[in-house]
Amino acid sequence: MAAQVSALNLDLSESRSTAWRSRVIAVTLMAIIASIFWIDSRYPALIKRYHAGTNLKATGALTFGQVYQVDPAMPLSRRVYRTTVNWLDANRIGMTFSFLFGPAALTFLSTLRRRRTNSRYLNTLLGAVSGVPLAVCTNCVAPIARGLYASGMSAESVLATMFASPALNLVVLAMTFVLFPLQIALLKLGTVLFLIFVFVPLVTAREAGNEQIACVIDVPAAETWTQAVTRTLTSYAKSFWYVFRVAFPLMIVAAALGALVVEIVPQQGLGTQATAIGIILVAIVSAFLPVPMAFDVAIAYIAMAKGVPMPYVAAILCTLGIVSVYSLSVVGKTISWRVAAYAYGTVVALGILAGVITRGWA
């Protein structure tokens, strides 16, 4: 893994044990940002989708709703533009949260003496546990992941968090087991667990040798509350810029690329008999698309209800929403492009395997 040297330098001159006031302020900041998002927006929306059950709907190509209607008869450029705007609107709350929470997490973690263990598997488990309640999609978790990695957290913890947040959320898992046959739901869960607990430790071991990115706060030996507030807010501003300057431009590019791909790929072929080539193409496209939280479950269920062959449904369910062009681009810029490529290839391979296994059940 290529060494990553952070341009963010918050320079710690004294022992971090004196940073307890800064730590308290950073934790409070994280709690405020998270509680507003989780209580006011994310979990109410997820629970609403769960209670929708078989009436779950998605009207946009990449979103549950639409700001602009997209007509197939429109020119491609207009359809791509409208789908991009729809995507940006649908993700505005989640992205706002991630761009605020990621720097707050970086600010807090930078005050800690240890942010990783000597065990890749324990680091992976800690990342997965952290990701489960986070409740953000693969896109919105990307800026948070950049902040986590910049703080000095291990690559395996960061990757596990990114995969667990959209795929192991308890509400999303409940939706999966309610809407799909048990064997399909278990297949989905199995691919996610493989990705987190097998792929993540292996890929980080293979790419060992990266330089830890440590961003810390300058804390004097006797920190006052006034100094703690000033230093924490200064650190937060620097952390915000570190995350924003890379993640925001990539977000715009990814939205446009996702819109382009979803508008040019013909969807009529999903109604035909499943073929090996079809399963491969479905997995490749689905793993690329940047979709919101629980959209994978919704689209896969709608496809199943409309009679789409189960191998295609399984491939969609096991690839859509676990990674995306956006999350992978942030991984590439933050950790390693090789790791991003391995992650995309592994998700595609798991989707193909799921489709082939499901085809064998027919």
Secondary structure layout:
Layout (H helix, E strand, L loop, with lengths): L19 H33 L23 H15 L1 H18 L10 H12 L9 H10 L4 H13 L2 H10 L2 H25 L18 H40 L11 H13 L6 H11 L4 H10 L5 H10 L2 H25 L1
Helix pairs in contact: 1-3, 1-7, 1-9, 2-9, 3-5, 3-9, 4-6, 4-8, 5-6, 5-9, 5-13, 6-8, 8-14, 9-13, 10-12, 10-14, 11-12, 12-14, 13-14
Supply the key terms.
mainly alpha, globular, single chain
Describe this structure in words.
The model is unreliable at 1-7 and 11-15 (pLDDT under 50). Helix 1 (20-52) runs antiparallel to helix 3, helix 6 (155-167) runs antiparallel to helix 8 and helix 12 (310-319) packs antiparallel against helix 14 (337-361). The N and C termini lie far apart (42 Å). The chain contains 14 helices and no strands. It has one domain (16-361). 68% of the residues lie in helices and 0% in strands. It has helices at 20-52, 76-90, 92-109, 120-131, 141-150, 155-167, 170-179, 182-206, 225-264, 276-288, 295-305, 310-319, 325-334, 337-361. It is globular, with a radius of gyration of 21 Å.
